[in-house]
Each structure stands twice: as C-alpha cells, then as structure tokens.
Fold this protein.
Amino acid sequence: MARPAGQGEHTKKRIAMRAKALFEQKGYSAATMDEIREAAGASKGSIYYHFKSKEEMFLYILELTMLDWIDKWAAISAPLGTATDKLYALADHFASDFQNPLMKAAEEFGGSEAADPAVHERLLELTRVHYPIFRQLLEDGMESGEFERMDVGELMYIVLGLMGGLGVAYYELGAEQIAALYRRSIDILLRGIRGVGADG
Amino acid sequence: MARPAGQGEHTKKRIAMRAKALFEQKGYSAATMDEIREAAGASKGSIYYHFKSKEEMFLYILELTMLDWIDKWAAISAPLGTATDKLYALADHFASDFQNPLMKAAEEFGGSEAADPAVHERLLELTRVHYPIFRQLLEDGMESGEFERMDVGELMYIVLGLMGGLGVAYYELGAEQIAALYRRSIDILLRGIRGVGADG
DNA sequence: GAGTTAATAGACCGGATGGTCGGTTTATGG
DNA sequence: CCATAAACCGACCATCCGGTCTATTAACTC
C-alpha cells in the first residue's frame, strides 16, 4: 500500500469543474482536451488517469451537475406548500441553474458523438432526471385542484419545453429580464391550466 | 467568354441540399467535408469552387432554409383571418418545417465555431428572421382584441421559447404526437392570454 | 531507507479534417 | 478549330486532437 491520501479525488473534481466551464463556453467538441488540461492545471497523463476518455468525462460532469441540481431543488421545494408556489420556484431554479449551456453541449454530444448506443442511452437517462420532478409537481397540482385535470405527460412536455425553450432569449436579454420572463410565462401558463376550483 | 451555361448554380444548390441533410443528421462539426463531398457526388475542388469555406457553406444553407420557411409561411397565412387561426397555423408550420435539427446545428455552430464576430453576427441575424413574424402576429391579435394587451416583446419571447422548446420531445414522441403537443400548447397559451373581448 | 503504489508529468503518435493547388474537362464565341 | 474561362477533379498538405506510453514523484508501510 502506498499514497492512499485520496488526493486524487480532489484533482478529479477540479479537472471536472474546469472542464465543465469550458464545455459550457465552447460546446463539447470545440472544447479540446488540451484546453481542459491547461485550464485545469493538470497534465494529459493525470487527466487520463482519472477519466477513461473525453466522453466519459463529459458524462461524469453531466451526472454531477444533474444530481446537484436535484439536491438543490429538494432544499428549495421543501418549505413550499402549494403546487403553484412550487411551479414558480421551479421555473426560477431552472432559469438560474439549469438554463446554463451545458445542456446545449449535451445535445451536441448526443447528436454527433456517441455512436455507441450505450453511451447515447446513458446520456438520455441523465438528460431526463428532472422529468419526474415536473411530472410529480403537475400531478400534485391537479390533485389539489390548483390545475385543471388533463394528460399529465402532455402537460409535462409542454412545461418542460417552455422552460427549456425560454433560453432563446439568452443571448439578447440580461439575467434579470430572463428571470422575469420565466415568471411571466408561468403567469400565463397558470391562467391556461388553472383548475375550476382555484381562485385567481 | 466561355461556358456561361450557369450550370454551376445548379451544382451549388445540389451540394447545399445534400450538405443540409448531413448537418441535420450529424450536427455541424461532425458532418465532415468529405462526407458532404461523397453525398453530393462532387469533388473537393468543386465544393471549394462554390463555397469559400465550410462556415460559409453552412451560413448559405441556413439562409436558404430560413427564406424558404418565410415564403411558405406567407402562402399559408395569406388566407387566414384571425390571429388565433394564424397562431395555430404558425405552430404547425414551426413544428413541421422549423423544428428540424438544422437549428440545433446552428446553435452548435454559433457556440463553438464562429470565433469571427462578424460570422457570429450574421448567424444571429439569420436565426432571428422569424422574430418579426411572431411579433406582428401577436400585435395583430392584441389589436383585434383576441389577445390581452401586454408587453409584446416579452410575449414574443415566451411564444418563441415555447415553440422552440417543445422540441425536447423530439426523441421520445412521434411526429403526430409532436404536432398534437404543439396544438395543445397553443390551447393553453390562448387560455392564458385571451383578451377580455374574445369568446371561447 | 527500501519497497510499493497512487498520482502526475509530458513527449509522442496515428488518424482525421478543413483546405489548397495544379491540372483537366467542357461549353461557348470568334 | 481554337482560344477562353467557367466548372470540376482529386492528390496532397498542414494542423489539430484524442489518446497512449514511459518515466518520475510523492506518500505511505515496514
């Protein structure tokens, strides 16, 4: 036995975080391993000691990011009561943490790389971890009468699409205006799906 | 003067169309010039005779696509009366013609390539050609009382985001279900922005 | 301090990719 | 015909990029 300091894990995380920033800025394929190496202040050898490949590194980063997002959401949503409140909070959470361009990189990754179907499958899985959160929220809202009863799956895709799609304004609006846009869109959505029993 | 047959233009279009298909299938960077060459049944020399670079070729294709989309929309919307009808038709047009993965490729292109700010600017310009269509439609609807009066720019981004974002379901739903999803989302949207003077 | 091994370093490689270049074909006008 | 230029061809190039390999360092045990 030797050097079980476990410092390697720290290095791995550091590399991942710097790489994440690069993936967000430049997309998957345009962020080269050499740029990552430089940004992380590590060596090629070290990087490939921790990660089998660029693909695997990206998946690792994506997983960390998604899990972190879910954790944060759990903390945010815990004290909230109504589905309506939660929906606003979810939009906010989505706008601030999720709307980041890492998802664009993931789309690019899935669209071109990942000839390996297993990799593609894992990617899809990671991309969908937040689906159940939306679905549950909408179901709860219907249950409580806040939202009109309707096809949950369909509504889930619509809300999901709305949240993801509002990112188009990313390049043209500031962070504050984006946040306002998300809230406003929820206003409209709520008026559109408000249950008969709800007031407003 | 010699060989002013103008057949070159035909070849250029052919190359562009085959390349477009490849860009849609594989994304910008993953579609290689050699694949394009093979698919187009042309030579490297011929391709670079017609296009200065891969970048320029992509921009050319994007422009053709957008202009074509606008033309088709003009034909579709001409006989339609109300803004509400037009909104449904626009969603349909968007879903069938626009939701195609060329826009994903454009995002990838803009996110990584296009270090040249001029190229990036031209890309943004092309990406936004349909903005005025949405804006005008919404303004008309407000004018006629079909839609509630509100900030047009904000609503435009919301509708735009909704349309673009619904593509998340692309990998999981069939074409018919997608179309239904678009219609359903417009149903909800309309309930959310319906003007006081409108019936429904 | 000798032995061991996790961890790091960085020179190097093979292949792919966008792009070039000199040459060839083909239609047209004189 | 023949000169001319548009259109086309394909071998070749320079570069970049993901990944490998060998060597070295540092931390731990005995």
Notes: DSSP finds ten helices and no strands in chain A. Chain A has two domains: 1-51, 60-193. Chain A has a mean pLDDT of 90.
